[in-house]
């Protein structure tokens, strides 16, 4: 499986440092700042756009009725906020090209 072939944080920092012509420490600080900004903006505004990649979106789920699969008992699921990532169409199409129509 390709699980051991994933890019690590260290490899990402090294690649960013090379591309930007800066030291690894500077690249790491930029990456950490970017992540912190994405989190704070999503928390504050409900959305953070990563140009060309997608967007982080905070979604509010309504309260609903659910079912305990073990007992079949009906339970109430409380309303809550969740974070979703929506992939940009351009990124999706370049990773998984759309099927050709016949």
Structure characterization notes:
The chain is α+β, with helices and mostly antiparallel strands. The protein folds into two domains: 1-44, no CATH class; 46-102, IHF-like DNA-binding proteins (HU Protein, Chain A, Irregular). The protein has helices spanning 9-20, 24-45, 89-95; strands spanning 47-50, 54-61, 64-67, 74-77, 80-87. Strand 1 and strand 2 (54-61) form a beta hairpin. Helix 1 crosses helix 2 (24-45). The longest helix is centred in the middle third of the chain and has 22 residues, at 24-45.
Q: What is this structure's SSE topology?
A:
Layout: H1 9-20, H2 24-45, E1 47-50, E2 54-61, E3 64-67, E4 74-77, E5 80-87, H3 89-95
Antiparallel strand pairs: 1-2, 2-5, 3-4
List keywords for this structure.
102 residues; HU Protein, Chain A; 2 domains; two-stranded antiparallel ribbon; 5 strands; alpha+beta
Write a compact overview of the structure shown.
The chain has 2 domains: 1-44, no CATH class; 46-102, Irregular (HU Protein, Chain A), CATH 4.10.520.
Tally of DSSP helical segments: 3
How are the strands ordered across the major sheet? 1-2-5
Query: Sheet bearing the most strands, described?
Result: 3 strands, antiparallel
The CATH topology name of the largest domain reads HU Protein, Chain A
CATH class of the largest domain: Few Secondary Structures
* Anisotropy-based shape: extended
CATH architecture group name of the largest domain: Irregular
Please tell me the total number of domains: 2
What is the number of strand segments? 5
């Amino acid at each position: 499986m390709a699980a051991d072939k994933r890019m690590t944080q260290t490899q990402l920092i090294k690649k960013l440092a090379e591309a930007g012509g800066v030291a690894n420490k500077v690249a790491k600080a930029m990456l950490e700042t970017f992540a912190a900004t994405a989190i704070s903006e999503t928390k504050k505004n409900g959305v953070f756009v990563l140009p060309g990649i997608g967007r982080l979106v905070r979604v509010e789920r309504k309260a609903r009725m659910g079912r305990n699969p073990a007992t079949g008992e009906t339970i109430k699921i409380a309303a809550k906020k969740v974070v979703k990532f929506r992939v940009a169409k351009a990124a999706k199409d370049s990773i998984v090209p759309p099927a050709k129509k016949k």
